[in-house]
Amino acid sequence: MSNGHQCDVLVIGGGPAGIAAATCAAESGASTLLVDDNPRLGGQIWRSTAANDIPGQARRWLNKFKASGCRALCDVHIVDCIGDKVLRGESGRGIQTFMYSKLVLATGARERLLPFPGWTLPNVFAAGGLQALVKGGAPIQRKRVVVAGTGPLLLAVASYLKRRGAKILCVAEQAPWERVAHFGVGLWSRPTKLLQAAAMGAALGAVDFKAGCWPVAARGDGVLREVDFHGSGGRFTLACDYLACGFGLVPNLELPRLLGSEVVNGFVAVDEWQQTSIAGVYCAGEPTGIGGVDSALAEGHIAGLAAAGRRHQARSFFRSRATAREFEEVLSATFRLRPELRSLCGGDTLVCRCEDVRFDRLRQMTGWREAKLQTRCGMGSCQGRTCGTAAEFLFGWDAVHTRPPVFPARVETLAADTVASTN
Amino acid sequence: MWPSSESIEPGHSLVMPSSFDIAIVGAGIVGAACAAEFARLDLRVAVVERDIIGGGATAAGMGHIVVMDDSEPQFALTGYSRRLWQELRPQLPDEAEYETSGTIWVAADDYEMREVHRKHRYYAERGVSTEVLDCRALAEAEPSLRGGLAGGLYVPDDAVVYPPVVARFLIQSTPGVKLFLGSPVREILHHGVRLESGDSILADKVVNATGDAAPSLTPGLKVMPRKGHLVITDRYPGFIRHQLVELGYLKSAHSDSNESVAFNVQPRRTGQILIGSSRQYGVSDKGIDRTIVRSMLKRAAQYLPGIGSLSAIRCWTGFRASTPDKLPLIGPLPDQNLYLATGHEGLGITTSLATARLLVSHATGRETPIDIAPYLPARMMEHQHA
Amino acid sequence: MPESIRLIINRESVDVPEGTTLAAALLRLGKAAVHRSPSGELRGPVCGMGVCFECRVAVNGRGHMRSCQTICEPGMEVRTDE
Predict the structure, then answer these.
(1) A neighbour chains, 3+ CB pairs within 8 Å
(2) Which CATH class, in words, describes the domain spanning B100-156+224-322?
(3) Is residue A89 within 8 Å of residue A98, measured between CB atoms?
(4) Is B59 on the interface with A (CB under 8 A)?
(5) Cβ A19 vs Cβ A107: under 8 Å
(6) Which residues of chain B register pLDDT less than 70?
(7) At C71, which CATH number?
């Protein structure tokens, strides 16, 4: 038996895009439900802390959300589509069934982790990953931290960790200086971004920011002790407590794909109303293009209003979306991954962490499917979210995941009937 | 003779001999076993595969190596083939994950327990070691099973293997096998095959080992796809120790009814639990049927109450190649250049090795290790051939 | 001031501020590694958002629970791979 929920507009994902969409739909009078898999709303960018501190912009939006009267259900993983306009979710509080008329997918993005020798050592984290853990109460005071990888996220993470007492040894950005400098100059034309950057810069103070720099090996005895980098001056080593390393963001496409939404060039294809190839199913935020908060909010507005039948109102956000979309292209051009990152692995470097599959085994495969069948790469708990993403960059494969469950689900959840007691 | 096996990717120009001795269509476990067997006799073998090695039913199924007693011919084939697996085992790479887990046929009540005793006698008469487990012995062997079951039949020499790795091993470790991947066949010719690309591969004899797709290349073949669903869990080492199958499974496998589920679960070496099984006729859609999955999982929970709280990480489907009399098609068609190695239903992994031995000995004029008559395609073709 | 709650990690009582995630609680304890990979390598949390599965532990007898997505609750019993 499951708990049943019925609504006009169901929004999956409680980050900026989902919160905006749900708020707008609810304000338009649609009975709206927002579902998120984290213990609290906010997604990644607006993640709250253990003490329930919320970033400024997020606080405003969450107040708007509360004021709209929209319901929210946290700690729920959507695991399958079990009928026409019926989704199944799983939570600590039992099996959930969601029946909707319109759906907004705001499933966000995750970080791209790339393998290099020693990357599986404890205390090697994703960049946003360490920030999330610290927000959840992990100790960071006086920890020596290197933030590495690519993208504006690195500075945001470094800034946040520094404010919490971390000793930021350096920020290592793989993009070359020319591109990063050009990006910085480009921010002049984007006042809000510039303000964000300035605020970050103030918090960060003097930090050793190295462009054209990336990790090549992590070492330690059961836990991280030091990291080798390749930089403009050659190779150097930093002894550190934590490495926070992420190579950009990739969209969470598993639920859109499960539903059959068309994906083009690695993103969910949507029309001007943020509607996917499936009528009544909308998509907003990172799954349509990695663009950050502004893009997510603009698209969330449009998707929520369109789903609630308010296209006329949605239209007024087209311009902010267009502006935000330009930024998406700048981001992707600036922080494109350099080819050297494909050559970091030694033969015995693990690529699939769930099944412990080494690089030298994968290198012999000719495609993702063959790799999965022959090596079990991507067949573990993460179902390719880590290794598949890496393999796409390392080998040019297409690591597509479309089968249910979207996330691991208890056997009893998959066995539960569609009939539910309705709330 | 070719010095070593090679694989040809589509789009690469190739230096071809004027002809191969054998062209095998399909690089699943059956095609792979046949290829290795022909090549061992120093014949020049081409394996022509539309996609990747072992990507069809070979990848989708359970990898259960099991002796069966539904009929004498089925017993003969599975028993012989199981011995061949035991002989092959030392050569298999570690990634083939061969484990002699054994099977326990679970009896829910006294009626099924009588079937346990019957099977025990049947196998004893034929030299296959089995052990009758009473209620207590069953509970000791498998603590996760629910109480109140009558007992079971333990078949210690049954095993579990990971077939895609075996298929690849059989093809790539046998010199003399030339592999054509990404090469769908449009038509089987009298002396070879014509590919969708327009190219031809010439061979003296052709083997159709394409599983449920066999009728598309050999029209009129009475091979029907029978869809199955499987669910795999995360790692729970020790949750079960043997392959567990309900005796009612036989009703499911035997029946001609449109759809049925039966309790059939397998421990993988990883500690993951593979949960099956389901059978459906007349469905060509590869999509997951949630109703069937629910039914199958509920059935599993009736035997293993704790299974409900295990984490399931993936669900998929596959198509078995089934025949009207539940026996595979092994041997020549009236057109002697074309051989069939298909129709293995749920026993393709088990009987792949025996299929290869039978086919190759018959095709090369040698005495077959067991009687091939029950499996010859001619038995179904009396009014058929074009 | 957030309340302190008590949970049991590997049979030892541990106090953490209310609202702390289980992954964070383990890091506070100095446990960088909580989970063993198939080949026995010790692993700790990485993504912090529930997609990498490296942070998993057993919670109240149930295995494969992602500690980064679990908020500590009073009396929670946690076992990690040693």
Answers:
(1) B, C
(2) alpha beta
(3) yes
(4) yes
(5) no
(6) 1-18, 249-257, 335-336, 382-386
(7) 3.10.20.440
| A423: pLDDT strictly greater than 80 | no
When scoring C39, C52, C59, C64 by the number of chain B Cβ atoms within 10 A, the one with the most, hence best to mutate, is: C64
CATH fold of B6-60+163-222+326-380: FAD/NAD(P)-binding domain (3.50.50)
CATH 3.50.50.60 domain position(s) in chain A? 2-109+250-332, 113-247
CA distance linking residue B130 with residue B121, whole number of Å:
9
The answer, yes or no, to whether residue A120 has pLDDT greater than 90, is yes
The tens digit of pLDDT for each residue in A173-212 reads: 999 999 998 888 777 667 667 767 776 666 667 789 999 9
Q: Does A367 touch chain B (CB under 8 A)?
A: yes
The better pLDDT of the pair A332, B35 is held by: B35
How far off is chain C from A66, nearest CA to CA, in Å? 21
Which of B310, B311, B313 best probes binding to C when mutated, by most C CB atoms within 10 angstroms?
Answer: B311
Chain B residues near any Cβ of chain C (below 8 Å): 234-236, 270, 309, 311
Q: Which of C27, C47, C70 sits opposite A110 (nearest CB)?
A: C47
Report the distance separating Cα A344 and Cα A367, nearest Å.
20
Report the C-alpha gap between C73 and B303 in whole angstroms. 33
Q: Which residue of A has its CA nearest to B95?
A: A375
Nearest chain B residue to C38 by CA distance is B270
Closest CA to A51 of B346, B96, C24, C38: C24
Query: Which chains neighbour B (Cβ–Cβ under 8 Å, 3 or more pairs)?
Result: A, C
- What's the gap in Å between the CA of C73 and the closest CA on chain A? 12
Closest residue in A to B53 (Cα–Cα): A370
What pLDDT, on the 0 to 100 scale, is given for residue B173? 87
pLDDT at site B2: 35
Under 8 Å between Cβ of A102 and A237? no
Residue by residue, DSSP assigns A16-51 as: HHHHHHHHHHHHTT--EEEE-SSSSSSTTTT---TT
Do A126 and C46 lie within an 8 Å CB cutoff? yes
- Sign, CA dihedral A149-A153-A155-A160, equals negative
Which one of A50, A252, A407 has the shortest CB-CB distance to C19? A50
Predicted pLDDT at A401: 86
The verdict on a CB contact (< 8 Å) between C63 and B270 is no
Contacts of B18 (CB under 8 A, 6+ apart): B202
Say yes or no: domain A2-109+250-332 is CATH 3.90.230.10: no
- Interface probe for B, chosen from A81, A364, A414, A419 (most Cβ of B below 10 Å), is A414
| Average pLDDT by stretches of 10, chain C with 82 residues | 89 95 96 95 97 97 95 97 86
Assign 3-class secondary structure to B263-328: EEEEECCCCEEEEEEEEEECCCCCCCCHHHHHHHHHHHHHHCHHHHHCEEEEEEEEEEEECCCCCC
